[in-house]
């Protein structure tokens, strides 16, 4: 009577306790030790594998049971399904101290060696497995054994630990032997289809059919050697080896191509005395030669029209791999470059007009980036097509977007050095970010510095601020009707929807500029404000909101990079733009809060203080507008602070008393306007911080032109009346009013000692350490002066 199938320990939503798992493993152990483990043992192993695999933390099995699994795995007579399950459980348990497998060298069966190797790799035994596999491949395999089971193991070793196959610092004999076999497997696989396994039934034909030839993906009989794109109903062992060799060829060449090249030089010196016109190639060179030939054949096969869709997908994947391998070969041996250049130029001409081959254009461009200088060919047309057409057409393809941006990031220096097209194409590249913001933000953080130079800075600044608008515009572009189907309407009237506006004369040029494919500063419209207002209906779109969240990070990076190369003129332009654009942002409340331009303005002023004098007209116009306190409070406050900090002869010899007076009068008028108490009108509401900064800046200016001290002192003395007014107390909280009054008192006290005020407010250029410390902590300095002037509590007034 057969043993009962053990109950499964797994149950949805129930945690398996260690004791229950131990009892279940004991039942499986009893089944495995039976005379002939059958279906019950298979079922038990399957359930056990599920239990140890589907858990958040490592499971521990009894040491004796682990040893039994190893024994059953290595027994030649164990059923294959049971061996596979034992190996799977041991892999899940790895790394495990109880796991001490036999040496790979003792295993003769290649299928069993593949299973044992998979467990050893999970244990971290890379070098032992790698050396064992290449040694087995080096020798002639016994009858009935196939290298087909070992190549996936070798591919894993190369991927996980490339250095594990090398002996010391050079490639070893076994690896060279593997190179020889790989060359043969690539080039000399059978061109006849494999035979179907005979069923052995009563009606089986006594005559053996002749094997049919392999075919191409379009159904034509193949007239050249077998490749991964060759089609057959059944495949022979050497054809499987051909496919496996190609799948690991790229990694093999990357890991051992250079080492084989070095060894080839030694081998060449030995064989050159016997070489003839058809000279014997060293192993590494021979592998490269056969690999190059194989890749050429794949590229030719990719031009055939497939009968099945899946074969078309395979064609494209093989085309990408073939071009990549050709690039590697040319890096290792430049004698292949000229052949590859002409071949790939023809390929590019063939596929560049087909959007389904867009991914294949990336390795082609990579090849020309790496080798066009050596081949003395002009590759600008290839780069131009790649950077102009692909992002504009396929920005919505997320996988292509990632690969494209990754390509640009990895080759940013090469692209910058090779062609001006790269930097000029930044409007196109940002379409990828606008449509795929969260996944691509880290790539653009690396890419942005390479796109910035004095010629692109201003455009990129505008583009970063308008990035959410670009997302909305791309959304509309994708939904817009073709020109032939557009609805008619009055060109003079205002469009009712964003979709109508896309081709409306009032908005068409704005859309075209925002969606441009390359830098075009000369085409910039006067203002995009109407377009931002029009696109307001899409401000709540999740894609637009996500894009807006990426802008602050990039803006901060933008100014950090620009600060490294910007000259006086560029800094001045940016300051003017900051003042203009601070309230011209897409209407997303969180976006307008997160885009902090005031701190960037302060940084630019700190970088070049003389701009306060040079841009006095623009700055006076901006700081003299009371409306800017409400609409642009943050940047207004920073601008007023910069005036007080940098409008000094210490920073710019061109600074005159007249200029100081002009700035003083402008800011005095603004402060008067916002603090003036009106009997019948409401008091303008503005941030307490703005009032405090205005008072401090007026005090600083008065300290530098002491004729102004009486005016500002009188003004400051009236602040007590201001903060106590019912109209003001209804607008501001008590803490804010107290802070305003304290600051006014401190400043007024400081001005009672003009020489001290002048000393404290002198910009710290070649100044004393005390001055630098005071300027770094101005509130502390003000309190120190106040304490000197005001009597201590409880003391008699002097």
UniProtKB/TrEMBL annotation:
GO terms for cellular component: AP-5 adaptor complex. Pfam families: SPG48, TPR_AP5Z1, TPR_AP5Z1_C. It comes from the Eukaryota. Residues 443-788 form the AP-5 complex subunit zeta-1 C-terminal TPR domain. Residues 314-431 form the AP-5 complex subunit zeta-1 ARM repeats domain. The lineage of its organism: Eukaryota, Metazoa, Chordata, Craniata, Vertebrata. This is Adaptor related protein complex 5 subunit zeta 1. It comes from Cyanistes caeruleus. InterPro entries: AP5Z1 (IPR028222), AP5Z1_ARM (IPR055450), TPR_AP5Z1_C (IPR056856), TPR_AP5Z1_N (IPR056857).
